[in-house]
Design a protein that fits this description.
The protein has eleven helices and ten strands. By secondary structure, the protein is an alpha/beta fold.
Length: about 260
């Protein structure tokens, strides 16, 4: 069962890594739309257009399952993709919300890009969970360039995290959804600031669990082939691939699907 994954950039690698960790023998095709990132500040119409092209590319490559490894694309385009294409489509939002539902969390925070917060995709789903008493959403667009530029270890990042997440400390949340696939890369620093009593929900881990459950009854593959495509030859993206997958063999190609 070949699995296709797409994101606008480096964030989707967190999903890709968790899938490989949990299901190492599957075939994967990853598409990083690095020429058109970020999606998080673009209009719904534009994100849907990009997502349709990305999904068609992956299906043309033989993918039988599509993973939308981008919260903005999950919020804006998932329903359109499900209607357009006759394949199972998984998204990071549903997986993250399911993890909260299965927990004992009562006061939940959400951090995401402006487009994801504006869509209210997380908050609308969370409101249907009976045990949730308080939902607080916060746009944190600055976290994306911190990850994309590889500067997460700089000393001033701690101050940026404090300024952006202090609202959650004041409101005494007990759970925080990392509503952008870039954010798990900052998970250690976020956890350090919020403290041990706040549960972090990493949608990349939850999505991998969902797909593992879906594939439990299917025939196991033994190939483990990994193909990676970028729409722009981002030097930093290539460096991130090497750092995150230094023990993995993969084919990397630059393509144009615009």
């Amino acid at each position: 069962m070949k699995i296709g994954i797409f994101d606008s950039g480096i964030g989707g690698l967190t999903v890709f890594k968790q899938l490989i960790k949990r299901l190492p023998n599957n075939d994967y095709v990853y598409l990083g739309d690095t020429a058109r990132l970020p999606y998080g500040i673009k209009s719904k119409k534009t994100v849907i257009e990009y997502s349709l092209k990305n999904t068609k590319f992956l299906i043309d490559k033989g993918c039988k399952i599509i993973v939308v490894a981008c919260n903005t694309a999950s919020a804006y385009a998932e329903s359109t993709l499900s209607k357009k294409f006759n394949v199972p489509i998984f998204n990071v939002i549903d997986s993250g919300v399911l993890a909260v539902k299965d927990s004992a969390i009562h006061n939940v925070g959400i951090i995401a890009t402006p487009s994801t917060i504006e869509s209210k995709s997380y908050s609308n789903r969370l409101k249907k969970i009976k045990n949730i008493k308080k939902i607080i959403s916060k746009e944190c667009p600055i976290f994306v360039p911190i990850v994309e530029e590889g500067i997460k270890s700089k000393g001033y990042i701690d101050q940026i995290i404090e300024e952006n997440l202090n609202i959650f400390k004041k409101n005494k949340i007990d759970g925080l959804i990392l509503g952008c696939t870039h954010y798990p890369i900052l998970k250690v620093k976020i956890k350090k600031f919020l403290g041990p009593n706040v549960t972090l929900f990493d949608s990349s881990i939850e999505l991998a669990k969902s797909i593992d459950t879906y594939l439990a009854k299917t025939k196991k593959v033994k190939s483990g082939k990994k193909e990676i495509y970028l729409t722009d030859g981002s030097k930093y993206f290539k460096t991130a691939l090497k750092n995150m997958f230094n023990d993995m063999n993969f084919n990397l190609k630059i393509i144009d699907i615009r």
